[in-house]
Structure formats: C-alpha cells, structure tokens
Amino acid sequence: MEMEMEMEKLPFYSSEIQSNERKGANKIQTCYNVMGAFIGVALLTLPYALAKGGWLSLSFLLLIAAMSLYTGILLKRCMQRYTQAKSYEDIVGYAFGKKGMIISCILANLEIYLISTSLLVVEGETLHKLYPHFHIKLFGLIFRGKQLFIIATALIISPTMFLNNMGFVSYVTAIGLCASVSIPVSLLGVGFSVADRGSTFYQQQGRLLSIGGIPTSISLFLACFGGHAIVPSTFVCMKAKDEYTKVLIISFIINTVIYMATAITGYVMYGNPTMLEITVNLPSRNISSKVATCASLIIPISKYALCITPIANAIDNILPLKNKINRPTHVGYLIRTLLLTSTTIMACVFPYFEFLMASIGSVTVAGISLLVPCCCYLRIYGPHHDKMVELIFIAGIIVFSIVTGFVGTYFSIHNLIKTM
C-alpha cells in the first residue's frame, strides 16, 4: 500500500487506465491495440536493413521478434505477481523502487520523443520526393526542400493536438494501422506490374551476408519492436487476462509476417541499392506505388498524436499547479503545442532518419523492450525461480541487449559522421 501511494506521487504516474479496466477489451481489440503499438514507420526501413546486412540478417529479425515476444510475456508475469500495477512504470517501480521507475520513464519518453521526431522526418522526405521543386516565397524569402514539408506536416498534425478524446485518437490510429498493412501489399503490386527493375520476377543482385552492415540491420530491426511500454496497459484493460499470452503470440506473429514480407519483397525488387525508405525506390507513376506512398504519408499523421500523449501527460503531472483536477485545458494544449514545435525544430535541424531509427533501436528499444523486462522479472521472481533453461535464455537476452546497445550506438554515430 505504501509503495502504491508513493508511485502515485511520482510525476510520471498516470491512473488513466483505471476507468478502461472496468470496461475491458476483448481478445480482438487487445490484439489490435498490441499490433498498432508496435507497427509504424520502421516498417519502411526493413528492405534497407536487409540490404545492409544481407539475406542471413533475416535470422536476427526472427531472433529479435522471439526475444521481444518473450519479454512481453515476462512483463505479463510481473503484472500477475504485482496486481496493483497499472503501467510499465509501476512494474519497474515495484522491482527497483522510485529511482528505477524514474529512469525507466525517462528512457521511455526519450524513445517516444525520437519516434515522434522520426514521424515528421519521414513525412518530409516522402513529400520532398514527390515534389522536389516545390517552394514558397514569403516576405522575400524562399522556403523549399525537406524542411518546408516538415513544417507543413506539423501544421497538418496540429489540430490533433487539441483532441482530448483518446477514443477518437484511437480511430485515427486505426487508419494508420491499415496503412501499415497496405505497404507490403502495395510492394507486391508494384513487383507484379513492372517488367524489369523492381519486378519480383527480375531479382536484383543481393548479398548473402555483410558483416559491416549487421549492426545497422540489428538496430533497424529492433526499432520495429519498440512498444513494450504499453504491454502492461493492454493487459490491465483486457477482460480475459488468462488469454493474454495467446493474444501476444498472435499479434507478434502477424506483425513479424508483415515485417518479413516487406523486407523480402523490397530487397528482391531493388537489391543492394535499396534506399532507406522503400517508397523512394518505387516508380512514381505506378498505381500500387501511389498507394504505398499515400500509406507512408498517412502513418506519421495518424500516429503522432497518440505517440506524443504520454510525454504531454508526464509534463502535465509535474507542473506545480495546486488544483490539477480543475486545471485549465489550455495548459494541456500549450504543452502539446510546445512538444510539436520542439520535435518540428529537431526534425528540421537534424533530418537524419537512419540515425534516428537506429538510435531508437539500439538505445531505447534494447533497454525498454529487452533489458528492463528481464531485469524486472529476475528481481521479482529471482528467489523463487528454478527453471535453469529459462534463466539462461533471459541472461542471453540481457547480454544481447547490452552488446547491441553499445555497438549499435557506436555505428549509428559513426555513420552519422560519415553522412555529415
């Protein structure tokens, strides 16, 4: 009881899920929520990740998928042991106390902030590819290029910052999930409709393995599985909690199939010259290409509001206002507007999508999705755990997350310096 009261005083604590817990979500709704949390713009980078590491690097995608699924199950077990937990931060707080909880919140919010920035970057790059010569003259100044489209995207997104009804935001997010699923289908459409380069029947030259590209591949693969912070929330909101493991397995299988289909199709079509965003490779006049491009434009706009909400809530909770219940709504609007402005500035000044996605994978996802769940599970269950094989597997995940975190960060910075 004391621990629960202490966590409620923390700035990052949120009790929004309590009302949803009473209503409950069925298996299909929970499956949709889990899938939607994990799938996003990282999907566009998978053919490039495969091109960097070669065909054998697909084994790392499957390995990361298996480890991510397992750490999701570990989080569910922690929720079963500590029944008062309502969120990811609650589990970390129960395992490691207030300091551990704050550190995990900082990492989780850093991940969300980088993802939000990457959404603006990928939108700007896609629009710039479609309209490379577009420019605006304003007050004697000429605005053009990727930065112009990033600012335009921020203006389009800005109305969603004033949506307090998360149910409506969820409908917008559902559109983004449908758009994500349409990308591999559109790639196949392009592959079957062209005769030479870009055809699934005209396989481009590819490599079996590229050791130097493996760190980048792993970092980009990891970025596809950054959604564990919502696993406890979806578990709490589910009616039949004993079915949650099955829901996780189904969700991860579907997402992994989508990831594999996108990676393999894109690499078969374009080979080693595959660009960072597969939509850049697609022919502009093909109907399926237009569908894939439109889908890649919809994803950032549909996911931004939902991505930025946890950070906005965290900042809102630490503001030194006495009456938080009757706090003016314009305070929350101001916070969200400032967050949108800051991510827009960062996207304009630092428009390096590959570095952002690799950093998300190697730093935040390796920590939030792999390392922390294992450490929490060992902390909570360690004295009562007697399955040696499982302990060895958990130890392997911990070592993998630490190594990929350091190596991936080094190569991300190294590649960024080369690019600049």
UniProtKB/TrEMBL annotation:
Subcellular location: Membrane
Membrane-spanning intervals of the chain: 30-49, 55-75, 134-156, 168-194, 214-235, 247-270, 290-312, 333-353, 359-380, 392-413
GO cellular component, one term: vacuolar membrane
Domain of life: Eukaryota
PANTHER family the UniProt entry points to: AMINO ACID TRANSPORTER (PTHR22950), AMINO ACID TRANSPORTER TRANSMEMBRANE DOMAIN-CONTAINING PROTEIN (PTHR22950:SF698)
Annotated protein name in UniProt: Amino acid transporter transmembrane domain-containing protein
One of the Pfam families matching this protein, by short name: Aa_trans
Membrane topology value: Multi-pass membrane protein
GO MF annotation terms: L-amino acid transmembrane transporter activity
Keywords, comma-separated and alphabetical: Amino-acid transport, Membrane, Transmembrane, Transmembrane helix, Transport
Amino acid transporter transmembrane domain sequence ranges: 28-413
Keyword Repressor: no
UniProt xrefs under InterPro entries: AA_transpt_TM
Organism of provenance: Lithospermum erythrorhizon
